[in-house]
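In this supplementary section we document a worked example of the pipeline. Step one takes a protein sequence of length 58 as its only input; no multiple sequence alignment statistics are reported here. Step two produces a three-dimensional model, which step three serialises into structure tokens for compact storage. The input and output of this example are shown verbatim.
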Amino acid sequence: MIDTELLEILACPICKGSVELRGDKIICHQCKKYYPIEDGIPIMLVDRARPLEQHEQA
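The serialised model returned by step three reads:
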């Protein structure tokens, strides 16, 4: 589980917008991307961003 304080300071590395925790993903609604969480660590790398549509279909 992601610490609430950590989630509050995270920002999307693409648009610098705020992000939201949803399940095992960090979601940016502004640029419509999501980032995986692996072993409790958010992987906030631009090259790991995936289109939000892929997440919503899964």
